[in-house]
Amino acid sequence: MLGIIGAGLAGTALGVGIGYLWLKNSRKNAFSHFELEAKAKAKAIASEAELLLQEAHVKIKTKELEQESEFQKRVAEVEERNRALILKGKELKKEEEKQRSLEKRILEKETSLELLEGQKQAAIEETILKMQNVVSLTKEEAKAYILEKVEEQSRSEVAGIVRKYEQIAKEEGQKKANYILAQATTRYAGDFAGERLINLITLPSDEHKGRIIGKEGRNIKTLEMLLGVDIVVDETPGVILVSSFNLYRRAIATRVIEVLVEDGRIHPGRIEEVHTKIQEEFEQKTYEEGENILIDLGIFPMHEELVRLLGRMKYRASYGQNALAHTLEVARLAKVMAAEMGGDEKLALRAGLLHDIGKALTQDLGGSHVDIGADLCRRHNEHPTVINAIYAHHGHEEPDSVESAAVCAADALSAARPGARREVLENFTKRVKEIEEIALGKAGVTQAYAINAGREIRVFANAQKMSDNEAVLLSKEIAKEIEEKVQYPGEIKVNVIRETRATSFAK
After folding, report:
1. Who is most buried in 121, 271, 281, 464, counting CB within 10 A?
2. Are residues 371 and 468 in the same domain?
3. pLDDT tens digit string along 3-45?
4. One domain, residues 227 and 290
């Protein structure tokens, strides 16, 4: 029994030992696994850290290169500025040297002239003494004789000098005029607005067309009678057309119909009521627009009627060019030109603003906008220069001041060039060609050129076949034929040039 127990205990002890050894090996293997895993993670972290370090180095290097490039760029700019300053300094030095040289030459010329003057006086005195001794002339008679001869010899020289300086003055005047025009046109560039002959009104549905026409057409008849426009209701879905050459009436008619459509009640009584209300609104609106223009330009005060008519010019067009846009452009251009020529800027601005004011009434009253505008301004005590500018910009009077001349030039710049008024290039070219052909068709004409955007034609006549009086008649004939055959805005100036040339050769 004891042997069995001992054997059991020994077996147990052996099992425990084996289990202990197995457990120890198992833990050792686990520790080895953890150790390898930790080493792998550490290696991965080290690799990642190294990669990040390399990226940081690359970024730093890139930043350094960018900074180096920027630095080099700045250095180059500084060097360029220094070179420019050095060149400028050299130029200034050269200019100073030229100026000193010029002053030196002028001083030498003055000294030489003084010397020559002294020599001349001495020669005159000597000649007078000789003439007194030889011819028995008195001192005064000899002096008068010599001066007469000197004057005769110098006359041609003086004429040459005068002509030379006249030419110089003319060239300088032309340069100054070109400069003034260039300054005016570059400082101000206005937008041109052209209106069509129709307004398009969008309707909520085609049902409204029937309501606008009304029973037996009574609504549309009332509208056309009150509004003074043509209302076109055709098969175009959702729209009707309002047609009239008068922009003001067309604008009122468009607004009246829009209000009636929004309201929904369309009958003769309601049409008259809305028309009266819209007319009053437009009168107030045009006055406010004119007032805002005067505030913007700073040329208050002005009579209320002129202010209202100024605002109304927004609804007036000439050859597709909006009258108010044209007026504002002329006013601003005239102001710049007057400033360049030493005139009154405010007066030029006012004259430019009112130069076409008569156009606001021509569609209602008829007649010339020049006469209407001048009468309006005279009645409301405007400055005489304003009235002269109204007459002068269409050639009814000569400009009597810098401000009037500036308005005339500004009006030509705004209205005469192609594109300012609504004309396609083809029509413009056709008109210019017709004008030239009319002139070339006349007997004795050698050449004809349309200039100034077709607003002037220069005709060259054969001097051997035409006298001065015939040239005058020719200009009138060409002008009359142009009036009858050509459609054009404004006026066309006809210049007939008859030139005789005498040529000889010195051999």
Report:
1. 271
2. no
3. 666 666 666 767 666 766 776 666 666 667 777 778 788 888 8
4. yes
pLDDT score at 195: 43
**What is the secondary structure of 272-337 as a DSSP string?**
HHHHHHHHHHHHHHHHHHHHHHHHHHT-----HHHHHHHHHGGG-EETTEEHHHHHHHHHHHHHHH
Number of domains the chain is built from: 5
Report whether 212 contacts 268 (CB < 8 A). Answer: no
Alpha carbons within 13 angstroms on the beta-carbon side of residue 404 total: 19
Pull the structure tokens for residue 35.
């150790």
**CATH number of the domain where residue 433 is located:** 3.30.300.30
Q: Is the model's pTM score more than 0.85?
A: no
Asked whether residue 458 is domain-assigned, the answer is yes
Q: Do the domain assignments include residue 68?
A: yes
User: Is 364 in the same domain as 458?
Assistant: no
Residues near 181 by Cβ (< 8 Å), separated by ≥ 6? 337, 409, 413
Rank 4-18, 119-133, 485-499 by mean pLDDT and report only the highest: 485-499
Determine the structural domain holding residue 159 and report its residue range.
Answer: 138-186
Residues facing residue 240 across a β-bridge: 201
- Give the full edge-to-edge strand order of the sheet including 493-498: 445-451, 456-461, 493-498
Inter-residue contact 439 to 432 (CB < 8 Å): no
Report the Cα–Cα distance between both ends of the chain, in Å, rounded: 170
H helix and E strand count, the chain: 15, 8
Question: 3-state DSSP call for residue 478?
Answer: helix
Query: 3-state secondary structure string, 60-120?
Result: HHHHHHHHHHHHHHHHHHHHHHHHHHHHHHHHHHHHHHHHHHHHHHHHHHHHHHHHHHHHH
